[in-house]
Amino acid sequence: MPPPADTRGNRALNSVLHTIAICQIRDGGRGQDYYLRRIAEGKTPAEARRALKRRLSNVVYRIMKRDQRTHLAQVA
């Protein structure tokens, strides 16, 4: 029996976050710095990549919430 829908996550969103993480790791910048710090802390590459994806998802969520507040303020 598959898990409930709310625990499976959004596969499309996960795929996009993975692509962004891989590009940031490859191309340098803050994402790569964060990834390398996690590696230096003793994380495996998969764990470090997962941590970067979690950080990216937090950024996306904050932007979405900000956009929603802006939209609601314009409508009101």
Give an overview in words.
The chain has one domain. Helices cover 83% and strands 0% of the residues. It has helices spanning 5-8, 11-27, 30-40, 45-75. The longest helix is centred in the C-terminal third of the chain and has 31 residues, at 45-75.
Strand content: under 5%
| Structural class by helix and strand composition | mainly alpha
Biggest sheet statistics: none
What portion of residues is helical?
A: over 70%
* Count of folded domains: 1
> What's the Cα radius of gyration?
16 Å
Mean pLDDT: 92
Q: State the total count of DSSP E strands.
A: 0
Order of helices and strands: HHHH
How would you sum up this structure in a few lines?
Helices cover 83% and strands 0% of the residues. The protein is built from four helices and no strands.
Question: What are the SSEs and their pairings?
Answer:
Layout: H1 5-8, H2 11-27, H3 30-40, H4 45-75
